[in-house]
Fold this protein.
Amino acid sequence: MTTLSIEVRRADPQDAREIAALHRKVWISSYAGLIPHRPLVHMIERRREDWWRRATRGPSTLLVLDVAGKIAGYATIGANRIKALKQEGEIYELYLLPEYQGIGLGSYFFRECRAILRALNMTGLVVWCLEDNENAITFYRAMGGMDVAEGMEEFDGRSLKKLGFVWRS
C-alpha cells in the first residue's frame, strides 16, 4: 500500500517557481471571464517567480498545500485589513489547482489556515471573494462563512462587487 503525504507548510524561497506556475494556472481558471482580460494578465504577470520568492519572507504568511511533494495549492494569511469587521484574522488568498478541487483538500487547507491564525492569537476570520465567483461563494458558505459585507474592486475601469465572509471564534 502506498501512503500519500499531505502537508500544509510555510512556503520556502525554492518553492517560488512552482507557486508562480500554480498562480498563473489557478487565476486563469478562476477569473477568465470575470475579471477583464488586460488587468487579469497584468496581475498574473507581475507575480513571477521573483515576486513569490520575496513573498516567502512576508509580511503576510505564505503557505503551500504539499501533496506527495507537489504543490497543489497556496494561501496567504495574516491580520484582517478591514477594521470595521471585528474579526482579527484574514485569509487573503486560498487557491488549489483544478485537479485537486472537489476532493476535500480545499476544506482541509482552509481549516489548517484557520488553525494557524488561531495559533497566532487571531480570533475570528474574514475572507473576500468576487460576487460572480460562484465556486468560491459555494465553498465559503459550505465552510460556515456568513457573507456580511460588500465592497468593490476596480479592474481597468470596470467595477466588480466583492463579498466579505466572516467566521466568528
Residues 24 and 44 are 6 Å apart (CA to CA). The mean pLDDT is 96.
